[in-house]
């Protein structure tokens, strides 16, 4: 991450209690951002609470199942009630599924779309008013598999293209930006 001051900025990160989400949250916090981690792994969120507190970072940890619009809205509302703003939304929560298209049940496609596409959509819709007001940014974590497909990942590739399209639909409002990660 380029050296930038994020003091007084609020960053919301879905899938934030582990992996890329947690690493990104720590980077933002190190550069002064207030962090809101949204995740459905309560145990990982509890571990993050200790990690951020020990480091002296301002972090709130919220349970959020991104497949459920109400929990996304509730989590975003809690962030806004606590911090009064959202400057950065990192739609990071995601899953993958390998398998040949013809052998994959439709409920598998639905699960991938619910997490990756609708999870990003629900959180973006919930945070959009604040992001526009703050001239904030939306970051969408998408896979390179969407542009350089791997044969066993056809289910996931369909989803990545949807997530990319979702980000492109939001772009014209000026405040958000879509960032593709490698």
Set down the secondary structure blueprint.
Blueprint: E1 10-14, H1 19-30, E2 34-39, H2 42-55, E3 59-63, H3 69-83, E4 88-91, H4 106-134, E5 137-140, H5 154-170
Helix pairs in contact: 3-4, 4-5
CATH architecture grouping: 3-Layer(aba) Sandwich
As a percent range, the share of helical residues equals 40-55%
Q: Helix segment count? A: 5
Supply Rg: 16 Å
Walk me through the structure.
The structure is a single chain. A 5-stranded parallel β-sheet has the order 3-2-1-4-5, sandwiched between helices. Helix content is 48%, strand content 13%. The chain starts with 9 loop residues before the first strand and ends in a 12-residue tail after the last helix. Helix 3 runs parallel beside helix 4 and helix 4 packs parallel to helix 5 (154-170). Helix 4 links the parallel strand 4 and strand 5 (137-140). The model is unreliable at 153-163 and 168-182 (pLDDT under 50). The chain is built from 5 helices and 5 strands. The protein has helices spanning 19-30, 42-55, 69-83, 106-134, 154-170, and strands at residues 10-14, 34-39, 59-63, 88-91, 137-140. With 182 residues, the chain is an alpha/beta fold. The chain is globular, with a radius of gyration of 16 Å. It has one domain (10-173): Rossmann fold (3-Layer(aba) Sandwich), CATH 3.40.50.
């Amino acid at each position: 991450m380029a050296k930038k001051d994020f003091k007084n900025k609020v960053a919301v990160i879905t899938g934030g209690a582990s992996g890329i989400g947690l690493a990104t949250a720590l980077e933002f916090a190190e550069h002064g951002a207030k962090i809101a981690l949204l995740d459905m792994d309560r145990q990982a969120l509890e571990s993050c609470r200790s990690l951020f507190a020990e480091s002296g970072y301002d972090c709130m940890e919220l349970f959020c199942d991104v497949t459920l619009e109400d929990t996304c809205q509730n989590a975003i509302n809690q962030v806004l009630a606590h911090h009064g703003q959202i400057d950065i939304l990192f739609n990071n929560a995601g899953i993958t599924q390998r398998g040949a298209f013809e052998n994959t049940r439709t409920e598998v496609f639905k699960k991938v779309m619910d997490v990756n596409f609708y999870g990003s959509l629900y959180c973006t819709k919930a945070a959009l008013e604040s992001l526009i007001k703050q001239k904030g940014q939306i970051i969408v974590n998408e896979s390179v598999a969407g542009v350089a497909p791997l044969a066993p990942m056809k289910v996931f590739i369909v989803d990545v293209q949807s997530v990319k399209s979702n980000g492109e639909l939001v772009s014209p409002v000026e405040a958000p930006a879509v960032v593709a990660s490698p």
